[in-house]
Amino acid sequence: MSFDLSVFSNKNIILAVTGGIAAYKSAILVRRLKDYGFNVRVVMTKGAQAFITPLTFQALSGNPVHTELLDPEAEAGMGHIELARWADLILVAPASCDTIAKFGAGLADDLLSTLYLATKAPVWVAPAMNQQMWAAKPTQRNLNTLVEDGVHVIMPEAGSQACGDVGLGRMPEPEDLAEQVKNYFHQAQRAIAEKFGLLAGKRVVITAGPTREAIDPVRYISNHSTGKMGFAIAAACYSAGAKVTLLAGPVSLDTPNGVRRINVSSAIKMLDESMHQLEEGCDVFIATAAVADYRVAEVAEHKIKKAGDELNVSLVKNPDIVATIAQQSKRPFMVGFAAETRNVEEYAAGKLVAKKLDMIACNDVSRADIGFASDQNAMTVFFAEQYQMEKRDLEKASKQEIAQQLVEAIHDALHHEIEPI
Fold this sequence. Notes:
- The chain is of the alpha/beta class.
- The chain is built from 15 helices and 21 strands.
- The chain has helices at residues 23-35, 46-49, 54-61, 72-76, 79-86, 97-105, 111-118, 131-135, 137-148, 174-196, 228-239, 267-280, 321-326, 344-354, 399-414, and strands at residues 2-3, 12-17, 39-44, 89-95, 123-127, 152-153, 157-160, 166-170, 203-208, 213-216, 219-221, 243-248, 260-263, 284-287, 294-296, 315-317, 333-340, 359-364, 376-383, 392-398, 417-418.
- An eight-stranded mixed beta sheet has the order 13-12-9-14-17-18-19-20, with helices on both faces.
- Helix 1 links the parallel strand 2 and strand 3 (39-44).
- The radius of gyration is 27 Å and the shape is elongated.
- The relative contact order is 0.10.
């Protein structure tokens, strides 16, 4: 079983590699962390570069490797202070005896020791050294200092060592270390959710309302969507602790408290803004907007004058916003909506698969009691196959109550173990 990778897509790990034969394991560790969806940057000491090249880590992480404290190129870009701020966790693996001593004494004479003092992120060390060096009183004294300072020390394993000795001092296997990092963030998110709300710490982007596709300066193609469901979901997400951005089509609704609202009109503008929000960072994308399927091929510059009994307008297909976002390399958790008038569940299940969504909520808008203009709704929620979660029937209730139930469904899916696709 593996966790939904979107849970970790916005988590930043600095993997610091120090001198020691175990440095070769760090290359595998980068790959395992990337497999879980983490963003990884590598810092190397001079000793580490004697065992393995920075180019190896650059290729595996997809990011430049940081080696010097006073690197002019690094200072012009991220810089050591910015690098310290960037990290959600600093993992030193392998952690040499020398590095542990520097941390314990508060020295700052290279990039790694400076990062240690400059970061607010948790610091983990995975010591790897000769068994006698591990057992030495100064080493144990330094480790005790680190523990007192809040550093998490990962105990080494026992076994044969490169020097021929046998005993404690081997760095744990990369797979085990990556698993510990994954579990740490998973448990931390659960704790935050329990304390502050189901979506605490999440950035949520929601599209809502109709779009308008201009025919000329005074006419347009649109639909009956009022945006009420999307606005209710925005309010529920904010109440659940999320940072919410609402991309609103032309509707006459008040902006929910605490929600950032961006007004858009056409499908093209809504897609452009959605892509911009994705670049800024997005954990959950909820597409409730009733986006026009087609737009006018050529919008008239001036008002079209009435002439004759017929007016022929050529239409072209609009881009599919939710499908486009779902196809991005760093995609958020994707929630789609299906407003249908017949075969509701069948069409919704098809859209879930075709558009590669994580979750879809469908309703029958032909029903007068839960249609576009109604203050009530009823929905059925489907989850992607890999979540192995049963569909949920949300019985008729106010749109605010339905929104809360949808937030709960999103939370449950985000924290559910899934089978890899």
